[in-house]
Design brief:
Radius of gyration: 33 Å
Number of helices: 5
Strand content: 5-15%
Number of domains: 2
Largest sheet: 2 strands, antiparallel
Mean pLDDT: 88
Low-confidence stretches: none
Order of helices and strands: HHHHEEH
Structural class: mainly alpha
Helix content: 55-70%
């Protein structure tokens, strides 16, 4: 954070920094600061107005598309070609761990039984231990 911002955000520091200014000079600074604030507020209002207009246009387009029986995937299929776009699938819940084992570092680890078998577990199975010994009961 710059020194200027530290000063302007702290009343005592600001007071000390401005102690040499006359009342007229302080009022001029206040006027300039008010102008900056007013410009920022106007910009924020304009941006929000544009966002609201965009939301309204999108809602209108959605209503029109729904009335016409058109889905967004229909439009995108025509534009990019290829197979129909699949609907967004829901992410499934993670599977609970099925096996528990101790790795090379002595840490207790678990494995769901899906995907590649962890190296420490694979090593134990390769050395003759049955996978059923590691089942979580």
């Amino acid at each position: 954070m710059s020194d200027f911002i530290r000063i302007i955000n702290h009343e005592r520091r600001l007071n000390a920094a401005l102690k040499d200014l006359s009342i007229d000079e302080l009022k001029e600074v206040q006027h300039k600061l008010n102008n900056v604030v007013n410009k920022r507020e106007a910009e924020a209002e304009e941006l929000e107005r544009e966002r609201q207009q965009k939301r309204e246009k999108i809602a209108e387009l959605k209503r029109t598309m729904q009335e016409a029986g058109i889905d967004i995937s229909d439009i995108l299929e025509d534009e990019i070609g290829g197979k129909p776009i699949a609907k967004a699938s829901r992410k499934r819940a993670p599977k609970p761990p099925k096996y528990e084992f101790t790795d090379e570092n002595g840490d207790r680890k678990t494995w769901t039984g899906q995907g590649r078998m962890p190296k420490a577990l694979q090593k134990a199975v390769d050395n003759g231990r049955p996978l059923s010994d590691f089942l979580i009961r």
